[in-house]
Every structure is written in C-alpha cells, then in structure tokens.
Amino acid sequence: MQNPVLPMPCEILKVHRESGHEWTFRVATDAKPQHGQFMQLSIPKVGEAPISVSAQGEGWLEFTIRSVGRVTDCIFSKQAGDVLFLRGPYGKGWPLEQLQGKHLVVVAGGTGVAPVRSLLRHLEENPSFVRDVHLICGFKNEEGIVFREELERWKESFSAVYTLDSGTKEGWRTGLVTEFVGEIPFDTFGDQYAVIVVGPPPMMKFTGLELLKCGAAPEKIWMSFERKMSCAVGKCGHCRIDEVYVCLDGPVFPYTVARRLVD
C-alpha cells in the first residue's frame, strides 16, 4: 500500500511568469487529481505548502503559486529541470455530477482563478458538458492579472465579464465582482443551474450574500477554501474549523456549509 503522505520527487518541466507575484510551474507526474483538488508541494529541509492544481494533462500537472513565504520563495528559485516533491492529491474537488447539464456560473477573484482553471479548461474542451458558462473574473489591478491568454480565449467560449477593482483596461469593467453578480440571468435558469465561487474569504463572503439577493439557492452554490492545511490527511488539526477539517471535508464545500466557515 502506498504511503499517502510520502512525497515523490518530480521534475519541473516548465516555468511561466503569470504576474509580478504569481508563477505557474508545470511538473512531471502521473497523479490524476479531480478538478479542484490540491497537492502538497515540498522542498526538503525547507517545508511544504498546499497548492491547488491549476491545469493537468497526460503526465503533468500545473500549479500557479503566489510568493507568500519561505517555501514558495524557495520554489520560485527553481527552474525547468529542477526537482519538486509532490504528495497527493487530497480533498474533495468540484462536484462534476451536480454541474453536468446545468447553467454554470463561476465567480473568481485574483489567484482564486487557479483552483477553477482546470475545470474551465475541461469545459472549454467539452462544451456539451454544461448548458453554458457565465464567468466573472476580478483582479485588484492590471498587474495582478493571471492566465491572460486563456482569459482572452474564454471570451469565445463563455459569457465572460472581466473586472479590475481599480484602474481601467480596454474591454474590462471597473469594480468588485459583487457589482456584476446582478447581471447573471438567474430568472431564466429555472432550477437548472450551479454556482462556483472562489477567491479571498471576504470576496467569497460578500459574493455569497449577493448571490442570495439575486435569487440563487444556497444548495446550488459551492466554494473552495484555503486554510492552513498542513498534513492534508486530517491528523494535525491546523485547518480545523469547529468540527470541519478543510483538508478532508473540502477544500470544496457546498455554501450551506461554507457560509459558516468564512472568517
């Protein structure tokens, strides 16, 4: 039986700069996570960090990482041909069986686009999986935009609204993502819809409240959390919120649970 917490050495195949603070690393691995699951990335004698899978293909996974501490700073020093250690995948991903055949609404903020990117790529390649996709992506400013080429491409496949919290950009709106939730035509969906929200906790909290104001049912909303996940197998308790272990019970939660977890 394979040890579920044993890291495996994996070669970095490609490194791509997304923004001033985010880089995407493509790593060789045979792991096949569900969309929305995460892996633990580690460097011996430095530490490890939980990172969502932002894309996947045959024999590789991609991780989009923001430099926020010692481990990620060390990862940023790596180049193609170097080695990262991976273990996982862990947690629960997006509920594909409850998304299939529905009108899908995706609201993502900042690097929160990363945990839903692999799902969006899947929907782009398999357009009949859902009825349609209504995508709202928001970033703090133009310097913080990630996945620029895909954002442009998704305009062709999805009904997309892109916005900056501040500043202007041609073809983009200005304002928080919550300001554009009211443009989603929930009244035309009947009960055949599902909603995904991912981003910083305050953004998810207020987006959830705005969705309820616009008539979205709590049981049709899902959110993805990142919270101090360490062991990833429910033993250390670092990610525990009351009786919930984010690493085991999440990181994807139905809003009926998630609304009690937002700090």
From TrEMBL:
Q: Which gene encodes it?
A: asrB
Protein name according to UniProt: Anaerobic sulfite reductase subunit AsrB
Where do the FAD-binding FR-type domain residues begin and end?
Answer: 5-96
Tell me the domain of life: Bacteria
**InterPro entries xrefs:** Cyt_c3_hydrogenase_gsu, Dihydroorotate_DH_Fe-S-bd, FAD-bd_FR_type, Flavoprot_Pyr_Nucl_cyt_Rdtase, FNR_nucleotide-bd, OxRdtase_FAD/NAD-bd, PyrK_electron_transfer, Riboflavin_synthase-like_b-brl
